[in-house]
Amino acid sequence: MRLKRFALITLLFVFALTACTVSKQLKQLGIQAQYQYKEGNYAEAYSLYDEIISIKTGQGKDAEANVYQNAGIAALHVDRVSDAINYLEQVKERSSANAQTYYYISKAYLKVDNLSREIINLEEFTRMYPDEEEIADVNHQLFMAYVRSENWDKAHRQWTLLSSKQQEGVLTIEGYVEVVQHLGHTNEVLSLAKKLLQSDSKNVLALEVLAVHYYNLAENSYQSEMKAYEKNRTNRQYKQLLAALKVINKNFKTSSDYFESLYKLKPEPRFANYLGNIYTRFENKSKANYYYSKTEQN
Q1: What DSSP state is assigned to residue 168?
Q2: What backbone phi and psi angles, to 5 degrees, belong to 164?
């Protein structure tokens, strides 16, 4: 009987000692992890936090919310994106999320191209933490997310929340060009395209916007003036046609300049077809045939 009691006491002592040892181990790991995290040594921090979580899981327990948060942020920094999402979502499940949670999880969802989850978390950030220092970056990311998701009205409103410096970025302007194109804001599209070309003379989107604009301007005017002359073949109407043709040809020339530059950068059949049409209007048969042949080759 005494032997059994001694064995039980010994077993309890071992359990207590083990628990104490594990507790000390977790405390030490936590200190090391926090230090590495603050120093920006995210690979080391991630490894230590991951170990803490594994030990806690083995005990059938959850780690503290800040452990999951720091682990998630560190994981994102070392490109362990799925782990980052998993840990940060657990912070949200425990109702312990803060601005950093939403900020970093939106970055993680951007990396895996989960557009809907990215937008949800960005919108939550803007709703709950409009005064946090990350708000400018969040507003910009949300604008680009709205563009990619084709939420044109939301993107248009979001544009006004961007800083002047953000609105100068080439990719951001390209996004806004898409927005105003789809919303039919023609004048704004043209000014933005010209602004893009000032920053990047080989910007494909800007060249296409301007090339197509001047082509349509010229072609629509040409069709209108020719119909008017066909309907009323008077001397006065003929003079009006000649005057109009000067402007029309000028616009065709502007369009062809843009299309020539565009075709060198991106030799697509549709651009070659535009050029073929323009040179047909100029009665330059050799150049027209040259570009039409390019549409057939492609």
Answers
A1: G
A2: -60, -35
